[in-house]
Amino acid sequence: MLDHLFLTVNDTDRSVRFYTEALAPLGITVRHDYDGKEGPPGHPDLKGFGAQGRIFFWLREGTVAPAAVHVGFVARNQTMVNEAYASAMRAGASDNGAPGARLHYDPRYYAAGVFDPDGYSLEFVYKQWQHPQP
User: Fold this and answer.
1) 14-60 pLDDT, tens per residue?
2) How far apart are CA 90 and CA 108, in angstroms?
3) In whole angstroms, what is the distance from residue 69 CA to residue 66 CA?
4) Helices 78-90/12-23 angle, 10° precision
5) CA neighbor of 126 nearest in space, from 63, 84, 69
6) Which stretches of the chain are DSSP H helices?
7) Which pTM value belongs to this model?
8) Alpha-carbon distance 61 to 28, whole Å?
């Protein structure tokens, strides 16, 4: 299991606005700013996102490398996938696959894909077998 991920972006203010809107339907609503001066020399300023007491997705300003990163965010159901996709598109994302089953993986794999403002590939994913219904 991963603890955290840093994503380098061109404009942190723009990216904070984008991710605040795009991740809200997934329940990723906690925000934290970390001043790099509090860390070791050269530590970047960070803009963090999280949920349930954890900050796990961080943005830092710098040179982007969109071909190097794909981020999949967990959704608890298909509705959350649909809502995250719609929110991301409203926030300025580009389409990379409308919500639907990804049969090439599994018939129960439901996802949507977008490119963020820096061109990073994001996926909102509901895997039914990982979220059994009561």
Assistant:
1) 999 999 999 999 999 999 999 999 999 999 999 999 999 999 999 99
2) 27
3) 6
4) 150
5) 84
6) 12-23, 78-90
7) 0.92
8) 21
